[in-house]
Design a protein that fits this description.
Mean pLDDT of chain A: 96
Mean pLDDT of chain B: 93
Largest sheet of chain A: 4 strands, parallel
CATH topology of the largest domain in chain B: Glutaredoxin
Radius of gyration of chain A: 22 Å
Strand content of chain A: 5-15%
Number of helices of chain A: 18
CATH architecture of the largest domain in chain A: 3-Layer(aba) Sandwich
Helix content of chain B: 40-55%
Number of strands of chain A: 8
Largest interface: A-B, 53 and 42 residues
Low-confidence stretches of chain B: 1-8
Largest sheet of chain B: 5 strands, mixed
Structural class of chain A: alpha/beta
Shape of chain B: elongated
Order of helices and strands of chain B: HHHHHEHHEEEEH
Number of helices of chain B: 8
CATH superfamily of the largest domain in chain A: NADH-ubiquinone oxidoreductase 51kDa subunit
Number of strands of chain B: 5
Distance between the termini of chain A: 54 Å
CATH class of the largest domain in chain A: Alpha Beta
CATH topology of the largest domain in chain A: Rossmann fold
Shape of chain A: globular
Oligomer: heterodimer
Strand order of the largest sheet of chain A: 3-2-1-4
Number of domains of chain B: 2
Structural class of chain B: alpha+beta
Strand order of the largest sheet of chain B: 2-3-1-4-5
Strand content of chain B: 5-15%
């Protein structure tokens, strides 16, 4: 049985599979199953039973999210699916692999999702910088239309669907689902107030589901091979496989599909080959730039949502950024603060004013001018910009590496103050 | 540079080309209203003109019947809409966390030394504009940068020299 449903067709040394080759490897089988008599309610139940959780960062159960879309004759008839392909989280490079490596998998998943929520239009909100993905997806979309998987009356089900590829003009905040919807509507990408949630009132005020690329890519396998198979992929509580990445000074950085629930050590040591010679592991961000630092003592924890949450961090995107013992933690956190400060949409005060302040303090530390008072101000900002204080999750995301970094690497901050320079620079 | 900026503050819409109009009309079919097409039109005009001048912005606002201030708000919000002239190729240099750990700062200094430009500047021969970009999502092959539409990975000083020579040779 297939044990790597997300990457089984991916070989980056050649172009992605064309539709014919994709079909002969069980591709689009799920749509034939649907055409054979699965109602949207049936598919919804299957996805709920699978236990699939969103792979974009928040880990929200996908079936539950879909069930919030109002259905029935009295509901708004126009509904939308939007795929969040605006991969911009620092240190995250997983959706790119899926879109460049196997674009039909994403399209098949999108058709399943759109059918289930009764959407007749689906947008892919793609990072403009992903020029290769534009190429692979455009070609695959055309092939899918030619084969009758898209367009009118798909496989004689009476169901119509159009997929539209939208390329963004670049802002991290577009990854936030309501900001993404504003961007797609041609507005500044400021987040919207919730409620109403997009599931009820989203794109152009219509019910809208926003799902991450990798989440959608889980669907064809679940439909084709079944829920039991999906549950059998993992031994832990969370189901299915996930893409995990490692970047930083390891021997073999990369991105791999693994079942959820394996120890972190297996990813870092077996897949990524451990640290480069002469370097030790100091800590790591487990799921992109807006997750809390974890330490070498956490390496035996399982790669699943709950286990990582127990030590105060998040599995999030599953792409790890490794901090080695010759790289300055203060510099690393400072780099992240520059990023978050630049990418703040500027709408709410704690984020717009707090992040540049924090960033400026890191520049002071870099120049050897950091003080104890600065350290106090940084600590205060972990609270001022934390969850519940801001309009969206951008600034709270920034406080994750900031707060945990201040806790775990306090001595490094103090050394900067004492030596009046960065102790890692020679 | 300064002359360009002064010239571009003239408040007169330029005439959109037929090719630009055709592409904008195509986008109109994909979205239910003109506001959504506004951002697409900015990108289309930039593709043809290299950047979005005041004259271009006015032309788009007129053509789609959008408030000028709204369109300007959108144009200045997004990183990849250029409201100032850029060189023939834009270098999008990733300086986010994984690239930083892998030493992008020294590659950046090398580019500044050899091309004579820092972030936000264009080379004297108008060949390259050098700007930073948030994480390019290719972190296992850091440091990375884009030149125009092409991604270049595992950058070293030597590799940067080769890449620059390659693009210069294309003219």
């Amino acid at each position: 049985m297939v044990d790597n449903p997300l990457t089984k067709n991916i070989d980056m040394s050649r172009p992605p599979l064309e539709v014919g080759a994709y079909e002969s490897n069980d591709g689009y089988q799920s749509l034939h199953k649907i055409a054979g008599g699965l109602s949207p309610e049936d598919v919804l139940q299957i996805v709920k039973d699978s236990g699939l959780k969103g792979r974009g960062g928040a880990g929200f159960p996908t079936g539950l999210k879909w069930s919030f879309v109002p259905q029935g004759p009295d509901s708004e008839q126009q509904k939308y699916l939007v795929v969040n392909a605006d991969e911009m989280e620092p240190g995250t490079f997983k959706d790119r692999l899926l879109m460049e490596g196997d674009p039909h998998l994403l399209l098949e998943g999108m058709i399943i999702a759109s059918y289930t929520i009764a959407a007749s239009k689906a947008y892919i909100f793609l990072r403009g910088e992903y020029t290769k993905s534009v190429e692979t997806l455009s070609k695959a979309i055309k092939e899918a239309y030619d084969k009758g998987y898209l367009g009118k009356n798909i496989l004689n089900t009476g169901y119509d669907l159009d997929i539209i590829l939208h390329t963004s003009a670049g802002r991290y905040i577009c990854g936030e689902e309501t900001a993404l919807l504003n961007a797609l509507e041609g507005k500044r990408a400021n987040p919207r107030a919730k409620p109403p949630f997009p599931q009820v009132s989203g794109l152009w005020g219509k019910p809208t589901i926003v799902n991450n690329v990798e989440t959608i890519c889980n669907l064809p396998g679940i439909l084709t091979y079944g829920v039991d198979w999906y549950h059998g992929l993992t031994k832990g509580k969370d189901h299915g496989t996930k893409l995990f990445g490692v970047s930083g000074k390891v021997k073999n950085p990369g991105c791999w599909e693994m079942p959820l629930g394996l120890p972190i050590r297996e990813l870092l040591e077996d897949k990524a080959g451990g640290m480069q010679d002469g370097l030790g592991l100091r800590g790591f961000l487990p799921g992109g730039g807006s997750t809390d630092f974890m330490l070498p003592e956490h390496l035996d924890l399982a790669l699943d949502y709950d286990e990582i949450a127990k030590v105060g961090s998040r599995l999030a995107t599953g792409t790890m950024i490794i901090l080695d013992d010759k790289t300055c933690p203060v510099g690393m956190i400072g780099n992240l603060m520059t990023f978050f400060s630049h990418e703040s949409c500027g709408f709410c005060t704690p984020c717009r004013d707090g992040l540049p302040w924090v960033d400026a303090i890191f520049r002071e530390f870099e120049a050897g001018k950091g003080t104890e008072k600065d350290l106090e101000i940084l600590r205060e900002h972990v609270d001022y910009m934390g969850p519940g204080r801001t309009f969206c999750a951008l600034a709270p995301g920034a406080t994750a590496p900031l707060g945990s970094g201040l806790k775990y690497f306090e001595e490094d901050f103090k050394e900067h103050i004492k030596q009046k320079r960065c102790p890692y620079k020679h | 540079m300064e002359n360009n900026l002064i010239a571009s503050s003239a408040k007169k819409a330029r005439k959109l080309t037929e090719a630009e109009i055709a592409e904008i009309e195509h986008e109109k079919e994909l979205y239910p209203d003109n506001q959504a097409v506004g951002l697409e039109a900015l990108k289309i005009v930039q593709k043809h003109q290299g950047w979005v001048s005041d004259e271009s912005l006015l032309a788009i606002a007129n053509y789609l019947d959008l408030p000028i201030a709204d369109l300007e708000g959108v144009a200045t919000f997004f990183n990849l809409v250029y409201r100032q002239p850029v060189g023939k190729k834009v270098i999008l240099f990733c300086n986010s966390v994984s690239c930083w750990i892998m030493g992008c700062d020294s590659v950046r200094s090398h580019i500044t030394d050899t091309l004579g430009v820092d972030f936000g500047q264009t080379t004297e021969d108008n060949e390259f504009t050098f700007i930073p970009v948030p994480c390019l999502g290719d972190c296992d092959r850091a440091p990375v940068m884009m030149v125009g539409e092409d991604l270049h990975r595992n950058l070293t000083n030597e590799k940067v020299d080769e890449i620059v020579a390659q693009y210069r040779g294309k003219d």
